[in-house]
């Protein structure tokens, strides 16, 4: 999660809002995450149970990632 300091709220408001349109953003105070800024769409999906996740077929993944997937599955079932 991307982080902005409380001071960035006034200095870099545009950057903060741009980042929040993509994913929730943490606002830090004294170097600790204190608040979250997110798009209304993201907030509604969290509060109304609407998921932004998309299901994809394993067959559609790139070959190199598919090879890693196959190895991980084999290792799992071989007890590694």
Briefly, what is this?
The chain has 4 helices and 3 strands, in the order E-H-H-E-E-H-H. By secondary structure, it is of the alpha+beta class.
Characteristic key phrases:
80 residues; alpha+beta; three-stranded mixed β-sheet; 4 helices; 3 strands; elongated
Could you walk me through the main structural features you see in this protein, from its secondary elements to its overall organization?
The protein is α+β, with helices and mostly antiparallel strands. It has four helices and three strands; from the N terminus they run E-H-H-E-E-H-H. Helices cover 46% and strands 19% of the residues. It has a three-stranded mixed β-sheet, covered by helices on one side. Strand 2 (25-29) and strand 3 form a beta hairpin. The longest helix has 15 residues, at 63-77.
